[in-house]
Design a protein that fits this description.
Keywords: Membrane, Transmembrane, Transmembrane helix. 45% of the residues lie in helices and 22% in strands. The chain has 259 residues and is an alpha+beta fold. It has 2 domains: 4-142, no CATH class; 155-258, Sandwich (Immunoglobulin-like), CATH 2.60.40. The strands form 2 sheets. Strands 1, 2, 5 and 6 form a 4-stranded antiparallel β-sheet that branches. The protein has a 3-stranded antiparallel β-sheet with strand order 4-3-7, with no helix packed on it. A hairpin with a 4-residue loop joins strand 3 and strand 4. Helix 2 runs antiparallel to helix 3 and helix 4 runs antiparallel to helix 6 (114-150).
Length: 259
């Protein structure tokens, strides 16, 4: 499920690959390329509509240029462009009359679009598809938080909901830390300044204590974050070597107008 949107981005490329044959007329090649752009365009529009959905429902930014994803995308695009540039100059040696030789090196004319098609579909998948999977998880977590807060009595100025304590990895997770996530809600009808002290109980029985001062807007719901920033749709409260199994908290508050 995590990479479904990335894999779906390859559909236009596979369409191009399947339809192209060794012997084709120029008109056929042009038609296949047109179909490729149409399929890729529809896929891109669908992804953008999903991004807009999360933007308006959960106020998630449309794009966030940061983190390993953008580093990977930038590196991938840079390496492809550099290889292309080096190959071009090595084969043409700066002489325009050698450009046909460069084009011919990619095989028959109908196959010359294959590398650009593959690169474009991979980039679209990673730039639009992968962040969407992260936003989908963020949306599910936030919906769970909304439901929990709806069933929580507002006896205090703030309420806190525990979401998860898990490793964000799929294999070789031994050295990966646990990401624990909690959300806090302002139960007052005004902006408040909060002094929050939290104690986390780990699986081994050890405890970890954190302190945070922050302002909560009227009726706001937001993640509790201690010194960690993984981007707008990857909130983390704390990162530990062991799973968090329980927590306690104390708080003081005052109206923001008194500050």
């Amino acid at each position: 499920m995590v990479y479904i949107f990335v894999y779906a981005a390859l559909l236009p490329f596979f369409y191009y690959l399947i339809r192209v044959k060794s012997e084709m007329l120029d008109e056929d090649v042009k038609q296949i390329k047109t179909h490729f752009w149409i399929i890729l365009g529809i896929y891109t529009v669908v992804l953008m509509v999903w991004h807009m959905y999360y933007r308006f429902k959960y106020e998630v930014p449309l794009v966030h240029f940061g983190g390993p994803l953008m580093i990977f995308v930038g590196s991938f695009a840079g390496v492809i462009f550099l290889c292309f540039l080096i190959a071009f100059f090595l084969m043409t040696k700066g002489r325009p009359n050698k450009i046909q030789l460069f084009k011919a090196s990619f095989g028959p004319k109908q196959f010359q679009f294959m590398l650009p098609a593959m690169g474009i579909t991979f980039l679209v998948g990673f730039i639009l598809g992968l962040p969407l999977t992260e936003k989908a998880k963020y949306g599910d977590d936030l919906q769970y938080v909304y439901d929990q807060f709806a069933d929580t009595a507002a006896d205090e100025a703030i309420s806190i909901v525990f979401v998860s304590s898990e490793k964000d990895c799929y294999e070789d997770c031994e050295d990966t830390k646990y990401d624990t996530l909690l959300y806090v809600r302002n139960n007052k009808d005004e902006d408040i300044d909060v002094r929050l002290r939290m104690q986390f109980a780990l699986e081994s029985g050890d405890t970890l204590e954190e302190f945070k001062q922050f302002r909560l807007e009227d009726s706001a719901i937001e993640p509790v974050e201690f010194h960690i920033d993984r981007g707008p749709w990857n909130p983390v409260t704390i990162r530990t070597d062991e799973r968090v199994v329980n927590y306690r908290w104390q708080h003081q508050w005052r109206s923001a107008e008194e500050s």
